[in-house]
Amino acid sequence: MDVVKAVLEKHQKELDKYKPISVEKHLECRLDVGTLLITDPNDFDDRQLKENREEYLAALTRDNTQLLVNAIWELSTERVDESIVAKLPEPTTILPRLRKVPGPRPLTKWEKFAKEKGIVKKKKDKKTYDETLDKWVPTYGFKRAEAEKEKEWVMEVPQNVDPNTDMFQKKMDLRNEKVAKNEIQRMKNIVRARKIDMPRSGYLGPEAASSNQLLTALTVAKSSTASVGKFQDKLPKEKEARGLGIKELIPGAKRKASHITDQPEKEANLDLIKSVLNKKPKLDVEKAISMQKRDDRLAREAEAGQQPAKKGSKKGGGKGSRKAVGKKPKGNRGQRAPGKKLQTGRKRR
Amino acid sequence: MKRLSEERAKILFEKLSKFIGTNVRQLIDRPDGTYCFREHKDRVYYVSERILKLSECFGYKQLVCVGTCFGKFSKTNKLKFHITALYYLAPYAQYKVWVKPSFEQQFLYGNHIPKSGLGRITENAGQYQGVVVYSMSDLPLGFGVLARSTTDCKTADPLTTVCFHQSDIGEYIRAEDTLF
Lengths: 349, 180
Known about the structure:
The complex is a heterodimer of chains A (349) and B (180).
Chain A: H1 2-17, E1 30-32, E2 37-39, H2 46-51, H3 53-74, E3 77-80, E4 83-86, H4 109-117, E5 127-130, E6 135-138, H5 144-151, H6 167-194, H7 211-222, H8 265-277, H9 285-311, H10 317-325
Antiparallel strand pairs in A: 1-2, 3-4, 5-6
Helix pairs in contact in A: 9-10
Chain B: E1 2-3, H1 6-20, H2 24-28, E2 35-40, E3 43-48, H3 49-55, E4 68-73, E5 79-81, H4 86-92, E6 96-99, H5 101-108, E7 113-114, E8 118-121, E9 130-135, E10 140-146, H6 150-155, E11 161-168, H7 171-174
Parallel strand pairs in B: 6-9
Antiparallel strand pairs in B: 1-2, 2-3, 3-4, 4-5, 6-8, 7-11, 9-10, 10-11
């Protein structure tokens, strides 16, 4: 009997080392086995928390962990390679996202334009019928280049081009240019989408730069002297770059250059007026011709005025001179016989 | 209000000299005080310095108009005179055109002057010369540009345009909101 008692006691002692697996809680804990999460809504015991805080917290944590483990053991388990595993259910707790939710892909410049104008992309057939080759040819991609080569095995050199030009090379160059342009446009789209700052000035090369950019680059370059371009000569009809944000690029543009002069405004204005008025008059061909015409006419009229005075003393002297001065245009009816009476045609008022 | 840049001042004086020739100097060199040109929102104003000083109390945005508005610079840096400039152009004008009383109203509605509407014209005016248009009773009505020189006018037939309309006093009503 002693032996039995001793064994039982020993067993009891071993059991005492472990805490019980059942845990009593005032309010039930929320469990989310999927994320191995347990949330305890019960209040802390204030007295125990004050007396021995660490022990109390450790005990509380153990209890709660026990609850979680109990819940795991309730799941169906299986043995894989000497270890027992359980399949966790789907987590029910919604975790906040670390990163921003990705938005829709920003549209490229063409896509934006097409959307505004309502242009819908038409789908092309994969193969098109080529009449010269008399067979179906792929519209793009595999074997397309081969078909093209077969079709254009000879190319005509146009008459206005140097006869030694390689038209095939020319065609290839054109194509390469297009590819390069497309690549630049693609880059620009990326820049636009990521809102990266691009250099707005500077020379981007003849293919890439627009005329506005070239003009801006020129204006910036011209004003980049020690005297902010004040003494740079201007070409005739040269334009200055204008537009949003261009003034900031041009050194000295924000400074009011006209105020720098120490000359009083009135004198400066008078000088300017003087230079405007003293401008050499341009040779005005129209004016010269019309003046020449007028002189000729006056000379002719003077001659015509003398003749009738010599010839016809019988006619009224005043009449003859009036006729010569106030001659009406003949309206393309050409020369008239000199002896003929002048009162023909419609009556003139 | 800012001073005109040298480039714009030059454009202004060139344009003024088209209408009043050497009399441009009179606008600046006045015995009754200093007058100057100022730019405000692309418009050119002719102001006496006394008024200019008074106007300095107002901010850029509050200010609508100071002195006499002469015209407006377009975005391509070209100056277009407004009818308000007539007050200073008319007394100094060197080349003038008088319109017949029958054509006065037509002109005030913004039409070009044909030969038939022409009453008198200054001698020796060349083509594209800026002219001030008067009624026969010597009332300035507006200004324009000659389409034909005086000598050509004599031989022109009655329906050809003699003077292109640029501005007339009818604009005080027609373009009231954009004038100043």
